[in-house]
Amino acid sequence: MNGGVVLSKLVSMNDLLGRMYFGISLFLIGCPVAWAVELDAHRAIYEIQLLRGGGGTDFTNVSGTMYLDWNDVCDGWTMTQHVRLLFSNPNGTTMQNDFSFSSWESRNGKKFRYSMLSKTNGNLNEKVEGEASIDPATGAGRAKFVKPKELELKLPGGTIFPTEHLFDTLNHALRGGKILTRNVFSGTGDDSLNEVSAVIGSPLEGSTVGEWSSQNDEDGNWSKGLRSWPVSMAYFPFGGEDSAPEFEIHFEILENGVSPTMDLDYGTFSMRGVMKHVEFYPPPTC
Fold first, then answer.
1. What digits encode the pLDDT tens for the residues 212-242?
2. What is the per-residue burial (b if ≥16 Cβ within 10 Å, else e) of 150-185?
3. Which residue ranges make up each domain of the chain?
């Protein structure tokens, strides 16, 4: 099992957090000022545990933490993620994977800067840096990598970036939409253009969020009165012929952009992230 690959795909879905953040795209490709949803800038800490799988020749257990910071910086949005996962092997040893990702996305959704760093047991796996842009006239764009090597990729018409994908998903949910498919470029590598298919469930009652808040946060009042939805996202390689997704994300998302829980499904195993703490930033003075 390639731990670096697992971690890079973990951050790709935080397209919604953040997939997400990760989470969680051209339905509303215009200016965010016109978007109905308003996301709350915040930082959160998640505890990650193995949900299903493991027990094979590669690892028997997975645990770790994820730190997510999503902020409004007037000219756009910044996202920072730090993930540390510990993979327990059958022979009793532990492999530590550290993954960091940071990005800036312009408020009009047309410019995107990104950097990624992956390490295993303190040794560098990969470092990625670059920037991407979308031509407003055509909807197509380009991604230019400067690390690990200089590389330029064409982005097809309709490609969007992670924060716009999150706005789009929530707006679709607010309008009662159920299915949403978008091409999303996340910047985690030269293979980070995905066709993302989202299935949005019916609005959830507030009891789920309220129960989470009372157990995991000193002040649970922030979630009162907020609507939330269950969302499943399947990530496919863009232009690929395989009918099976590379991975799937199942999560609950509130209308302010916060996700209390998420399940990350990689086929042979899955992990669950549960938010243990969240803090909100005050609105910026622009």
1. 544 555 456 777 778 889 999 999 988 877 7
2. eeebebeeebbbbbbbbbbbbbbbbeeeeebebbbb
3. 3-280
Measure the CA–CA gap between 207 and 14, rounded to whole angstroms.
24
Which tokens go with 22? 């990760």
Structure tokens at 241: 């012929």
Bridge partners for 47 per DSSP? 65, 274
**Cα–Cα dist 20/165, whole Å:** 9
- Strand 159-160, strand 179-185: pairing: parallel
Say if residue 148 is preceded by a cis peptide, omega within 30 of 0.
yes
Matching residue, tokens 């027990």: 55
Contact (CB, 8 A) for 238 and 195: yes
**DSSP 8-state symbol, 281:** P
Instruction: Decide: 77 and 70 in contact? Cβ < 8 Å.
Output: yes
The highest-confidence range among 12-16, 28-32, 154-158, by mean pLDDT, is 154-158
Predicted TM-score of the model (pTM): 0.82
